[in-house]
Amino acid sequence: MHRSILRIILGAKVSTPKEILYADTDTVPTTLRRSWLTRKYLIQLSIKPQNPMYETAKLLYSIKKDYPKRSSPALIHEMRYIDQLGIATFEGTPAHFSTYSYPLHPDRHPSGPSGSPFQKKSAVADHRAVAELFSSLNNQVPEETLRILTDGAKQQTTNRTTCAIHIPSLEVSRAWTLMEHASIFTAELQAIYQALDYTFKLDEHVPAVAIYCDSKSVVSSIASSAPGNNESLHGVRETMASLKASGTLTTILWIPSHVGIRGNEEADRLATRECSSPTGTRIKINLSPSEKISIVKTDWKEKVLLNLKNCHKPCIQSRKTTGLVRWLYHKERCVTVCLKRLRSGHNYLNAFSNRIDQGADPSCRKGCEEIENAKHVLVDCQANEPN
Ligand SMILES: [Zn+2]
Question: How far is the CA of 335 from the centre of ligand 1 (A)?
Fold first, then answer.
């Protein structure tokens, strides 16, 4: 049923292998799709102890027994698969985050993340204006404010995530390496957390601290009213509350990156250097659900591609990733259908008709003696040349 619909959409012949149908529509067989959705569901469930399904799932997880094939509970297979990937789900009770009601109300609390007059697009276009605007704004910040610049970095080749802080007035530069598979989002948050923590642990009293971060999503998520499920986010909010209680005003500002703002370049350099040669200072926190889901997704996509490669047609074997290939689509549907039929080899040319029915004539319908296949029609056939 599923596949016959795909065939109608693609205008593919009945003989077209199913892998080509899936690859060309960027869909997957129902069983694979179910696996992906179940794994995602389990990871999300594992942080929600208030969910009615939580206890059942946890119990199921803790019973380590072999079920007979036909009567094993539906979730157990995927549960063990996630386990095998080294991702923690139901081992412990999910971290209990503080009961503070977030965010701090802006009218009552002067501290908190704030926006920035910069716009990313114009900032990238005009570096100097931004650097000047930044320094003039920076001069307006009260003298006694402790300014800290933060940054995070991720290196794709080594899969290493790092964060760094830089305090120009105290000449402090520090960098940390995060746990494996941590996202850049977590790294930026951790950098802010480390900056706040550093301020909190200072011996002398700091009346105000301003933290400059170059990730807009991080700044807005700290200010957001959504509780969020990233451990670092809670760390940041808790420390902000503690600082406030001890009389330090916190401001978190977004600044555009890579536009020549001095301290930011330094923080960026620190984080990048930590990526290539780690200093050994490590931060150990739990992966957030979205980081776990992204590990599962990467693994799942590899399996999907492997599954496609069961088909030995060149149009499948040449694929490096799943997903739609842009140039195979034309705004005229008939052109797209024609292209796909030619690529798959399952088309209405005489060579293919001959493969199905030995009695059919494989030679060119335009009268030449050649076999009528895709190459002949597109490249060789003289009858198809425009005059
Ligand atoms: Zn011909």
Answer: 21
Report the separation in Å between the CA atom of 343 and the middle of ligand 1, taken as the mean of its atom positions.
Answer: 19
The CATH label, of 2.60.40.10, 3.30.420.10, 3.40.50.720, 3.40.1480.10, for the domain at 112-285 is 3.30.420.10
Span 294-325, pLDDT tens digits: 999 999 999 999 998 888 888 888 888 888 88
State how far the Cα of 81 lies from the Cα of 253, in Å rounded to an integer: 42
CA of 352 to the centre of ligand 1 (A): 15
140-175 pLDDT, tens digit per residue, is: 777 788 889 898 888 888 888 899 999 888 888 888
Distance CA 57, CA 55 (A): 5
Q: How far is the CA of 329 from the centre of ligand 1 (A)?
A: 26
The pTM assigned to this predicted structure is 0.77
- Alpha carbons 366 and 383: distance in angstroms, whole number: 6
CA of 317 to the centre of ligand 1 (A): 29
